[in-house]
Write a structure and sequence with these properties.
Helix 1 runs antiparallel to helix 11, helix 3 crosses helix 11 and helix 6 runs antiparallel to helix 13. The chain contains 14 helices and no strands. The longest helix has 28 residues. The protein is mostly helical. It has one domain.
């Protein structure tokens, strides 16, 4: 197996644990505590990687306006995006929150119309309708395990946080630094915001050490190591589209962890919603190939 595919599949494995890790960690920490300690862990991981490569000094010798740019991006992601996304996980079964989160592909396409001056195609309209019909299927009342009602606030947060993710990547196109340095700075500058939010609305005090274990796992495998392996895979790839398509295995692998570790019974409605969402994404991708366009995936 080529190294880029091995790294891509390793990243898929890392990200596939995220939904399960969020749900387990939220038993011991609240959303803001999870976010704060995960971000700190990610900064440590990314910083150590840059130091090992001799690139850490570069991150601290940039012009002031560059730091303002990366601080702004850091507010969008990880601070606001993950605050919304993890709150969605807190309110929803993992098998519902995780597929909805992948509608960012469609959101990115739609926001590219006004922000990047791209035209809206018939394929995009069809993809949007199909994809969000999957969200409707997932959020239908009685769709949760045990027949309990679905939190519409959770559905709203899981879907609307994709707007933040899409905005982050649209504006990230302007980034001039090495991608790992850029992500390191995003996370570094988000620490004060996450810390202040935690002090204002929660507490920095952790009462159960198992919460910290979960936050460290998320900081390592949802953030730090995953971003490193993904960016390395893309740099090594002759054809980045083949590598980026691997990421769409993540929700399906994630369901294995959700079922075996969390013990959630995977409902037929979950499969219907997931198939509709990924059918919409396939239509979107097919339309981009026909139009000769490329789209930004996860970093």
């Amino acid at each position: 197996m080529k190294k880029e595919y091995a790294l891509g599949l390793l990243t898929v494995l890392f990200w596939s644990t995220s939904a399960t890790a969020f749900k387990i960690t939220l038993q011991y920490l609240d959303v803001l505590q999870l976010l704060f300690y995960s971000i700190i862990t990610a900064v440590a991981v990314l910083g150590c990687f840059l130091a090992a490569k001799g690139r850490l000094g570069r991150a601290f010798g940039l012009p002031a306006k560059t730091y303002v740019f990366y601080m702004t991006l850091g507010v969008l992601n990880p601070f606001i995006y993950y605050w919304m996304a993890v709150t969605g996980y807190d309110l929803l079964p993992a098998q519902i929150a995780q597929p909805i989160n992948y509608t960012w592909v469609i959101t990115l396409s739609l926001l590219s119309v006004p922000l990047l001056k791209q035209s809206l195609t018939g394929m995009q309209v069809l993809a949007t309708l199909v994809c969000y019909s999957g969200v409707v299927a997932l959020s239908w009342q009685g769709g949760a395990a045990g027949g309990e009602s679905i939190s519409m606030t959770g559905v709203f947060l899981a879907a609307s946080c994709t707007v933040i993710w899409a905005l982050y990547w649209i504006y990230n196109v302007r980034a001039k630094e090495d991608p790992i340095t850029a992500i390191f700075l995003n996370f570094l500058f988000s620490i004060p915001f996450a810390g202040l939010a935690c002090m204002a609305f929660s507490s920095l005090t952790v009462t159960d050490i198992r919460g910290l274990y979960g936050a460290v796992w998320i900081g390592c495998f949802e953030f730090g190591f995953a971003f490193i392996t993904w960016i390395m895979a893309l740099k090594l790839a002759d054809n980045t589209n083949r590598v980026t398509n691997l990421i769409f295995l993540t929700p399906f692998v994630s369901l294995v962890f959700i079922a075996t570790v969390l013990g959630e019974a995977i409902l037929p409605r979950t499969w219907v919603g997931l198939v509709l969402i990924f059918t919409g994404i396939f239509i979107q991708k097919y339309g981009e190939v026909r139009a000769g366009l490329t789209s930004q995936t996860r970093p």
